[in-house]
Structures are given as C-alpha cells and as structure tokens.
Amino acid sequence: MRPMTAARTSSPADRSQLGLRERKKIKTREAIRTATYALIKEQGYDATTIDQIAERAEVSPSTVFRYFPTKEDIVLTDEYDPILLEELRSRPADEPWTDSIRYVMREAVRTGVEEDAEVARLRTHLMVQVPAVRSRMMQSMSVTGRMLCTAIAERTGSDPDSLEVRVYAMSLIGGLMETSLYWAENDHRDDFASLVDRTLTVLARGLPHENR
Amino acid sequence: MRPMTAARTSSPADRSQLGLRERKKIKTREAIRTATYALIKEQGYDATTIDQIAERAEVSPSTVFRYFPTKEDIVLTDEYDPILLEELRSRPADEPWTDSIRYVMREAVRTGVEEDAEVARLRTHLMVQVPAVRSRMMQSMSVTGRMLCTAIAERTGSDPDSLEVRVYAMSLIGGLMETSLYWAENDHRDDFASLVDRTLTVLARGLPHENR
DNA sequence: CCATGAAATGAGAGTAGCTCTCAAAATGTA
DNA sequence: TACATTTTGAGAGCTACTCTCATTTCATGG
After folding, report:
1. C-alpha to C-alpha distance for A136 and B208, rounded to whole angstroms
2. Best of B128, B163, B202, B212 to disrupt the A interface by mutation (most A CBs within 10 Å)?
3. pLDDT by residue (tens digit) across A132-178?
4. What's the angle, vertex CA A163, arms to CA B209 and CA B82, rounded to 5?
5. Residues of chain B contacting A136 with CB distance shorter than 8 Å
C-alpha cells in the first residue's frame, strides 16, 4: 500500500556499497522524478511532456521510458507492498487480525506522510485532478489488494482466492482510496491518520447511528 | 452501476418517434459498438485499431471519436446510474436501507446480465485482460459511487460528502468490482447474482467464521 | 593499464490514440 | 425549392509509448 507516500529511496548507507553503475541508475531515477515534480508544479500535469522531463533531467526521452513504463508511474511508483506484508506477518498471531490491519495501515500511512509530506500532498492532489493518475493509482491499489488477500488468508486459514476474501480486501482498498481523495479534496486540512482510523471503523462496523 | 451489463438501447417503440437525424445517430452508435465487439472477438482488444473499427462501421475515424471519447468507452459506456438511483428511491422508506441496496443491486445485475449475457461476459473478460478497460471501469464505478453517496445520504439523513458515507459507498463499489473480476476469472461458471449476494453479505457482516 | 564483454544510453523511426479545424454533405424547415 | 443547422469526412498535428541499432560507459581479468 502506498496511499500517497514519498519515494522510498534506498538509504545512503546502502548506496556507497553499490558499484558506480547502480549508483548512477539511482541518481537518474531520482533526477527524472525531481524534474517531473518540478515541471508539474510549474505547468500542471498535462502540459508537462516527456521531452521536457527528459531535457530537465538531462537524459534522453528513451531513457525516461526505460526507467518508468508510463508517465503516471513517474509520479506514483513505489514499492511498499512487501514492507506492508512483512509488517502484517510480524504482528502477534493472537491479535485479532482486523486490529493488525488497523495497526499496519496506520503505521504505513504515518511513515509515508512523514517521509515527505509535500510529495504526499502533490500525489493525492494529482489523484483528484488527473484521471490517468487516479486510474494508475487504483490499479496499483488493486495489486496491493491481492497481496492483502494472501496475508488475510494466511492469518485466517481461508482461501486467498475465495470470493469472500477478495471482496473483503478490495472493499478495504476502495475505502482507503476514497480516504486519500477525501483528504486531498479538503485541501489536506485533516490529519490523514485520523481519517484512516475513521475509515477502518466504518469498514468494520458500517455507518454509525443509522437504521441498518 | 453497470457491473457488466449490455447496452441499454432505447426501445424500438421510442425510436420511431424520433426524427430521421436522431434515429441515424442511434444506428451509427450501434454500428460502431457492433463493429468493435466483432473485431475484438476476432483479433483481441489491442490489435483492434480505431481505423479498423471505423472502416467496418462504415464511418470515418473522426466520427468514432465523436461518439465515444475513448476506445475503452466503446466497450463500456452505458448509463445505468439514473435508473439505479430511481429504483433506490422507490424502495419503501421503512425498509432497512442495507436491504434496499441489496435488492436494487441484485435487480440491476439480473436485468443487466439477462439483457445480453454474451456482451456481459465479453465485458468482464476484457476487464480482466485489458488494464485500460479495467481502469475505465473503475473510473465509471467511482461515478456510481458518488451517486450512491447521495442516495445513502438521502435515506439516512447524513451528509453525502462526509468521509463515512463516501468510504462506505466506495467500499461497496470496490467489492462489486472485485465480484465482476472474480466471475470472469472463473470463466463465468458461477451464477453472478449469487456472487453479488455473497459479496453484500461480506460487506455487511465481514468475513465469516474467523477470529475478528 | 589495457582489452574484452556487458550494460546503459541516445538517436530516430514508427504506431496509435486523441484533438482540432474546416469544408462538404445530409437533414429539417419555410 | 432555398436556407439554416446539424452531422460528417478529410487531414493535419500532438504526444505517449515501442523498437531497433549504433555508441558510449562501466566492470573485470590478464
């Protein structure tokens, strides 16, 4: 999951371990991202072309596509899923697993937003503004959903491919997606962690105070 | 909502009422859709170009884009939302609204699949196979989600823009989306209405038989 | 330190979705 | 039949994205 978090650049400690080649690749990746963010802030998403990004990052357009499959991915890509899965597995086995999910989600959100609040805001903002970005986000969320399925199945001893587990996971994803949009639409005024908390409560107990 | 239903072509009775112009427009629209479905069945989605579609439908490529904003829309577009909203409003006020939703969803699904089972299958199949189609579907589902927000808010007297209502609606949408995918991935062997029933149960009561 | 192999990059051509403009054709109306 | 409006076609143009191939950059063993 990566509701709207910053890039998880490998820590500087690791980087000096790597060969010149690897380090250069990381630098290029960052250069492209940085250039993209800057250009989008200046001109908006649609007005920013790959050629412009390439020029500012001082690479060729070909290279941009070598690093990122699509324009949306430059803004969004990150790999939080394995970390999330790891954390979910490391929760005590006797903890009710809905609590585990709540804990892990809150944790993921916290580190994500804290790491680079500005990028988090830009990303959610683009999710609201640019349909292509929103779509790409949903797509990556659904990958996270499949991962959640395996985690939930492990924990509950059920089949990860069963309709029930899949529906549960995707409803969770859908809810969290909407939470991100809500946050951005309200100009990031709310505390995102609290919003996530409320979301998980709704998902667990349904809408409050109504004739259900 | 339109989980994977057929085109709602206006009934023939209405059509003769319209002028030549309107009738021709409807015919063109249908020709483009028919051509697209046929070509996709022959060659697959990606291999089918707009030019081919235009040629088979005997219109110019420009006209194709005049009728459908994107290629995905040729496969997916329909407007069931108003009907869904209408049906939801016509449910008795004292019925628990979760029951109303269950009833309306089941009804929508039933008419949708019955209307043209083959198209329903093709659509869900494409949702699984083609990321662009899936994305477009999710996008249109989220529109349905907003509509659901107003309906739920009407019924429960809550704010349609509140986080809780929005999260609830989108988790519903996410769950139903996954149901469609599940149906297609299992080669449409299951009875779709039953799947929807199970989905709504999960959403209402969570996963069964587990340590929650 | 250099030669050899591998990996990364750049240049460029090509495809297809999609937009926009403008003139021609089809249709409704007086 | 003549005029006004709507619909269509033709075509130019933009951009994301793919693929190929030559060139450059780095790693490594002698």
Report:
1. 32
2. B163
3. 999 999 888 888 999 999 998 988 889 999 999 999 999 999 999 99
4. 115
5. 135
Q: Which residues of A touch B174 (CB under 8 A)?
A: 170-175, 177
Return the closest nucleotide (C1') to the Cα of A62.
C10
Q: Which residue's entry shows tokens 């004739």?
A: A211
DSSP B1-52: --SSPPP-PPPHHHHTTS-HHHHHHHHHHHHHHHHHHHHHHHH-TTT--HHH
pLDDT tens per residue across all 212 residues of chain B = 544 443 344 444 454 566 778 889 999 999 999 999 999 999 999 999 999 999 999 999 999 999 999 999 999 877 778 888 888 889 998 888 888 988 998 888 888 888 888 889 999 999 999 999 999 998 888 889 999 999 889 888 899 999 999 999 999 999 999 999 999 999 999 999 999 999 999 998 877 755 44
Distance A15 CA to D30 C1' (A): 30
Q: Which among A175, A182, A212 has CB closest to B171? A: A175
Which pTM was predicted? 0.84
Maximum separation of any 2 CA atoms in chain A, in Å:
64
